[in-house]
């Protein structure tokens, strides 16, 4: 999937001329697309400074929701992978097409609203969309599918076997300390019964009376003790339930895909609107008033990445003295998000990355 660099530069005589100048310089390197922004309400400098930070956080959040919905789509359509991309559209358009031909949705995000209100509309619209967790980790898998009867001490009045999820980088630490996390842990009682790319599932045997204390100290060491009791009858009943759920899943497949399709589209559209808000706010902070800048998209590839970066630096190096040394910033001594070298790499122009590899793991 494509990657785009969303940039902005001050208008020359007009914003259109800024676009035309960059387009001519990028001939043979990259197409250049205008990102058309409506006349948004600027507000006060203090508001813009606060919004810059809030929009950065919102950008990360909405992107994460969008990616989770994309991953869910892949998981749900595991038997129809060839049809995943046709269900990952933005308002019926392919994602690249939506980005390069972006049009502000005034029905969802009325431009008469303040920038703060627009930000809150997007944030509230995503706060309840999804509470996704990672797939596959032993901390989320059904434990009954990963263990056997012989992994446990059963029918003991005093002893119990616990299951512990251990991050792979902490395997050695686990072996060194598990029997010392509390008294009454049986030495050499831990065995690995399952692992994936990130975690391992270990057994450990200890006295029932110290289980709570063991859980507490394990958590301090980043080890997660899972609540699990080995019960053959319950496990068998669970397997029957899984069979029923598999049957139900086939019935629910259509409605679930439709739900994912609608919510993915809404989430992706909101994400690109956040990018548009960010480029507007940062451009006003960077270039000042009256509003006179052009937001543009370029499309780098592995082959052209460095050449495009060098060309942008050449085109806009004259802006370097206008950003940090601006009297407005020096006088207020503000730490402007997006303008601080300590926070991210600095460019003389406003820069944001848009990566559409939403189903990459």
Structure description:
Keywords: Hydrogen ion transport, Ion transport, Transport. This is V-type proton ATPase subunit C. Belongs to the V-ATPase C subunit family. It is a single chain. The chain is of the alpha+beta class and 361 residues long. 44% of the residues lie in helices and 14% in strands. It is built from 11 helices and 8 strands. The protein has helices at residues 15-25, 45-76, 84-87, 95-100, 115-126, 171-177, 211-220, 232-287, 305-316, 320-323, 327-332, and strands spanning 3-10, 32-34, 159-167, 191-195, 199-207, 224-226, 293-298, 350-355. It has a 4-stranded antiparallel β-sheet with strand order 2-7-1-8. A 4-stranded antiparallel β-sheet has the order 4-5-3-6, covered by helices on one side.
Using the alpha-carbon principal axes, give the shape.
Answer: elongated
Can you tell me the residue ranges where pLDDT is under 50 for at least 5 consecutive residues? 131-137, 322-343
- Give the amount of beta strand, in percent: 5-15%
Question: Order of strands in the sheet with the most strands?
Answer: 2-7-1-8
Structural class: alpha+beta
């Amino acid at each position: 999937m494509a990657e785009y660099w969303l940039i902005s530069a001050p208008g020359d005589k007009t914003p259109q001329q800024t676009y035309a100048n960059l387009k001519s310089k990028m001939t043979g390197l990259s197409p250049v697309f205008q990102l058309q922004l409506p006349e948004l309400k600027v507000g006060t400098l203090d508001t813009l400074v606060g919004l810059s930070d809030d929009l950065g956080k919102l950008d990360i959040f909405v992107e994460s929701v969008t990616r989770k919905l994309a991953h869910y789509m892949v998981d749900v359509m595991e038997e129809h992978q060839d049809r995943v991309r046709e269900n990952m559209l933005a308002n019926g358009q392919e994602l690249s097409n939506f980005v390069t031909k972006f049009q502000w949705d005034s029905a969802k995000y009325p431009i008469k609203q303040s920038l703060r209100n627009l930000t809150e509309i997007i944030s509230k619209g995503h706060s309840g969309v999804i509470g996704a967790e990672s797939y596959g980790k032993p901390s989320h898998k059904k434990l009954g599918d990963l263990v056997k009867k012989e992994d446990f001490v059963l029918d003991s009045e005093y002893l119990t076997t616990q299951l512990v999820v251990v991050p792979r980088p902490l395997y050695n630490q686990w072996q060194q300390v598990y029997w010392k996390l509390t008294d009454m842990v049986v030495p050499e009682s831990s065995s690995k019964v399952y692992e994936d790319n990130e975690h391992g599932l270990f057994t450990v045997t200890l006295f029932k009376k110290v289980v709570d204390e063991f859980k507490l100290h394990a958590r301090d060491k980043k080890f997660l003790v899972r609540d699990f009791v080995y019960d053959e009858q319950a496990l068998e009943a669970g397997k029957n339930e899984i069979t029923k759920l598999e049957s139900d899943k086939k019935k629910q497949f259509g409605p679930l895909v439709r739900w994912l399709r609608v919510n993915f589209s809404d989430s992706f559209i909101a994400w690109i609107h956040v990018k548009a808000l960010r480029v507007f706010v940062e451009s006003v902070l960077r270039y000042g008033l009256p509003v006179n800048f052009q937001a543009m998209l370029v499309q780098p590839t592995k082959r052209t990445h460095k050449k495009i970066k060098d060309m942008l630096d050449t085109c806009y190096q004259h802006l370097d003295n206008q950003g940090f040394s601006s009297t407005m910033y020096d006088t207020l001594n503000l730490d402007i998000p997006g303008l601080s070298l300590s926070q991210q790499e600095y460019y003389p122009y406003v820069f944001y990355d848009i990566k559409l590899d939403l189903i990459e793991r």
